[in-house]
């Protein structure tokens, strides 16, 4: 059986120590006229530096991994006789998946004996990270490339994403809410709760009065659908608001007895769209 690698992109927002066996391609952002690659370890722009700029009112512009970058990353693996399973950021939110598909098709003629499978994760941030991490754990168990591709297709719809944002003004600057909605929402301390649906789209679900209520609402949704919450690994990501993420983690431990909870930053590309203060919860559920 030929060896294979798992490839993904930096919108997975995994801590670098959880991505050591993965090939991770960075998306890019432009901030104050300078371009940065979104590496998981923050080597080109640190998380604190990024969120300080966002809080100061900067609006970064992001760009997907392009076809040429995927070809450049895929070719050495194929030349080394390895196949590829590429797990990409949701196609509803980025062109990254489409670029990976085009690159894979373009390499078919040069490497007819090799296999490259590209899977749309329909996930974002550490939801994509959890999905990729689960796939990597199955690979360690010895799953074949085709078996892992099938596992990915079966699992992606069970990766639940629930998140809340703190700054409606950032969403207003990005054109995602109206100036009136941002003004009155801020005055009334309205905090939206959103999720990623079965098609990988960001969908507003409810509005909470106050920050704490919105954070606890994330755990309420977990309580409704989580599969064996005490014994699964849960991911939480945050936009430079670790105390709020820790509040969510503590509530999960209190309600379910969950022991394995991983907390990390929302990376600069995702953070460019959510702003500072986002808190997101990811877990396996019966449905999204």
What's the short story on this structure?
Helices cover 40% and strands 24% of the residues.
Write a structural description.
By secondary structure, this protein is α/β, with parallel strands linked by helices. It is 40% helix and 24% strand. The protein is built from ten helices and 13 strands. It has helices spanning 47-55, 67-79, 96-108, 125-140, 145-155, 168-173, 179-187, 211-225, 242-256, 268-274; strands at residues 4-9, 23-25, 28-31, 34-37, 61-63, 83-88, 116-120, 159-164, 190-196, 202-209, 234-238, 261-265, 279-284. The strands form three sheets. The protein has a six-stranded mixed beta sheet, sandwiched between helices. Strand 3 (28-31) and strand 4 (34-37) form a beta hairpin. The longest helix is centred in the middle third of the chain and has 16 residues, at 125-140.
As residue ranges, the low-confidence spans are none
Instruction: Describe the oligomeric state of these chains in a short phrase.
Output: single chain
Give average pLDDT, whole number: 93
Give the CA-CA distance, first to last residue: 35 Å
Percent helix range = 25-40%
Task: Give the helix/strand layout.
Elements: E1 4-9, E2 23-25, E3 28-31, E4 34-37, H1 47-55, E5 61-63, H2 67-79, E6 83-88, H3 96-108, E7 116-120, H4 125-140, H5 145-155, E8 159-164, H6 168-173, H7 179-187, E9 190-196, E10 202-209, H8 211-225, E11 234-238, H9 242-256, E12 261-265, H10 268-274, E13 279-284
Parallel strand pairs: 1-2, 1-6, 6-7, 11-12
Antiparallel strand pairs: 3-4, 3-5, 8-9, 8-13, 9-10, 11-13
Helix pairs in contact: 2-3, 4-5, 8-9
């Amino acid at each position: 059986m030929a060896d294979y690698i798992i490839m993904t992109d930096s919108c997975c927002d995994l801590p670098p120590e959880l991505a050591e066996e993965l090939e991770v391609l960075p998306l890019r952002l432009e901030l104050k006229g300078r371009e940065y690659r979104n590496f998981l370890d923050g080597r080109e722009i640190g998380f604190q530096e990024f969120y300080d700029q966002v809080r100061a009112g900067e609006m970064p512009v992001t760009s997907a991994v392009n076809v040429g970058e995927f070809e450049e990353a895929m070719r050495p693996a194929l030349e080394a006789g390895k196949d590829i399973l590429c797990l990409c950021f949701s196609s509803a939110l980025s062109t990254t998946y489409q670029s990976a598909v085009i690159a894979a098709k373009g390499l078919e003629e040069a490497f007819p004996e090799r296999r490259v499978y590209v899977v749309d994760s329909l996930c974002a941030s550490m939801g994509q990270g959890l999905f990729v991490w689960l796939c990597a754990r199955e690979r360690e168990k010895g799953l074949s490339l085709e078996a892992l591709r099938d596992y990915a297709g079966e699992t992606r719809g069970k990766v639940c994403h629930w998140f809340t944002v703190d700054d409606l003004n950032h969403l207003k600057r990005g054109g995602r809410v109206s100036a009136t909605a941002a003004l009155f929402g801020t005055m009334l301390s309205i905090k939206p709760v959103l999720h990623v649906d079965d098609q990988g789209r960001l969908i507003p679900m409810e509005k909470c009065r106050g920050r704490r209520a919105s954070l606890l609402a994330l755990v309420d949704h977990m309580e409704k659908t989580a599969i064996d919450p005490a014994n699964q690994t849960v991911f939480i990501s945050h936009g430079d608001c670790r105390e709020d993420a820790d509040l969510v983690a503590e509530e999960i431990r209190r309600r379910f007895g969950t022991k394995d909870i991983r907390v990390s930053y929302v990376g600069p590309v995702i953070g460019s769209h959510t702003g500072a203060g986002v808190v997101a919860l990811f877990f396996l559920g019966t449905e999204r």
